[in-house]
Amino acid sequence: GDVQFIDYEYSGYNYLAYDIGNHFNEFAGVSDVDYSLYPDRQLQGQWLRSYLEAYKEFKGFGTEVTEKEVEILFIQVNQFALASHFFWGLWALIQAKYSTIDFDFLGYAIVRFNQYFKMKPEVTALKVP
């Protein structure tokens, strides 16, 4: 009945909104990236509401979540999704130089940076209520 998500990625601690934004970015895949699979605002809202309800229940704060709370987290998640694109783009550039893995790291970096610049105007225009 219970699900627990554990992210061991580089064993680093990230901001909550970064991990969720990175999770949403990964909907697009890695080797055959398709950002049309990035969750739309409605799916993100449902996902974030469920997350906040579970979080509040776990912390003993009840389960009531306001639209404002969902909207604030939505904005934070999408801002950190931009940071995720930039981070993985830089990571891929480094891998392109040093990795022995057979993968098009340079192509992946280009895809991530392109998506960063595509999303940036829309995301930076979001205003916290």
TrEMBL record:
GO terms for biological process: phosphatidylethanolamine biosynthetic process. One of its GO terms (cellular component) is cytoplasm. InterPro entries: Kinase-like_dom_sf. Pfam families: Choline_kinase. It comes from the Eukaryota. Pathway: Phospholipid metabolism; phosphatidylethanolamine biosynthesis; phosphatidylethanolamine from ethanolamine: step 1/3. Its EC number is 2.7.1.82. GO terms for molecular function: ethanolamine kinase activity. Keywords: Kinase, Lipid biosynthesis, Lipid metabolism, Phospholipid biosynthesis, Phospholipid metabolism, Transferase. Belongs to the choline/ethanolamine kinase family. This is ethanolamine kinase.
